[in-house]
């Protein structure tokens, strides 16, 4: 049996910009970007549930407190790894960006530029299940 060799693409297209980051940071910018994606997705879901009156005052308060703590931890880790929080994003070319630009997306409204966050939020809201 013959094995085919697939060339390794060392393109930097899918990595966050390295400007302003320490070389020692390694995967930290990418991991912090994914963490920020999850945080913003949770925030969008809380906003949706709040606007649909699915959350009690206590649940809303707990969710807000948790999201604030998570955001402060992300900012703290950005300081630790010398990563600019404004650079926590990944450009996916024609697919848009991983995170929306600040202020360009609100749950339930159509965003001005496509982002993975908007897609995931809409999928969760409609109840789409991916099998496999």
Automatic annotation (TrEMBL):
Record GO biological process: gas vesicle organization
Pfam families, sorted: GvpK
Key words of the record: Gas vesicle
Coiled-coil ranges per UniProt: none
Subcellular location: Gas vesicle
GO cellular component term of the entry, any: gas vesicle
Family of this protein: Belongs to the gas vesicle GvpK family.
Protein name (Swiss-Prot/TrEMBL): Gas vesicle protein K
Organism per entry: Cylindrospermopsis raciborskii CS-506_A
